[in-house]
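Morning run. Coffee first, then this:
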Amino acid sequence: MSRVFAYCRVSTADQTYENQILEIQAAGFNVESRRVVSETVSGSTAAMERSGFRKLIDRLEENDVLVVTKLDRLGRNAMDVRSTVEQLDELKVRVHCLALGGVDLTSAAGKMTMAVIAAVAEFERDLLVERTQAGLSRAKAQGKKLGRPSRLTSEQQEAIRQQRAKGTSLGVLAKEFGVSRSAIQRVDSGG
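And here it is:
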């Protein structure tokens, strides 16, 4: 006989998971209160790093059903959700997501849905990288200096170059100017 668990997550203490429980019940899932796992943790935390979710995983057995209202309850991004669903599938736990029409994410249709979601997430990441690269190239072409501003003034940088030309070590200069050895190295190499 399958046991039904619900996983409810909210991000802040002033939020409540009661609506998630009501939504799960309204969808026809009868979840005993002792099988409702709820926690307050940021969505940016991977599912397997959440204490409540880890405890839930330890309680789940083959043929159990885990119900969530939305995919973002299961992970911080599409890749995390996919990994979490795959781990649950290995345990032979079915995962139902109400926002996706109650589809079992471990079924063939659910796996296809997860693949589409992962593809869209990868596409969005690729677009973000392209836009970032285009913006950096445009800024460079406009002569803007990229990166963190140097802690060293142009006078200090010139003094460092002169000292390095005389053979002063990176460590000595780093200590003298209160910066890291790599900062001295960047000045020395013209970067």
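Residues 10 and 97 are 16 Å apart (CA to CA). Good start to the day.
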